[in-house]
Specification:
The chain is an all-beta fold. Helix content is about 0%, strand content about 55%. The protein contains no helices and eleven strands.
Length: about 110
């Protein structure tokens, strides 16, 4: 099972980025993103579902979407803030409730 995230980088506050995560080797019931800011614990960013779940800190700025045919999940991040700086991890949860994680992609937002 592989989840390959891409799209991270260094941007300025107010800019946008789009993260992608392509999964292979497993079909997932749901997929999403967590992030780990420097010196902090990993936290939920967004997760797909009948009604997507978003962290309060990203509501209205980030949008999660999924292309099931491509087994890929995306995270459109707009109006980025320095506090969005983190390593972003994509995950996929099987229908049996097992979660797999990919390697992270760094997002750095300068002020």
């Amino acid at each position: 099972v592989q989840l390959q995230a891409s799209g991270g980088g260094l941007v300025q506050a107010g800019d946008s980025l789009r993260l992608s995560c392509a999964a292979s080797g497993r079909t997932f019931g749901s997929m999403g993103w967590f992030r780990q800011p420097p010196g902090k614990e990993r936290e939920l960013v967004a997760w797909t579902g009948t009604t997507p779940i978003y962290a309060d800190s990203v509501k209205g700025r980030f949008t999660i979407s999924r292309d099931s045919a491509k087994n890929t999940v995306y995270l459109q991040m707009n109006t980025l803030k320095p506090e969005d700086t983190a390593v972003y991890y994509c995950g996929g949860r099987t229908y049996l409730g097992v979660t797999y994680w990919g390697k992270g992609t760094q997002v750095t937002v300068s002020s």
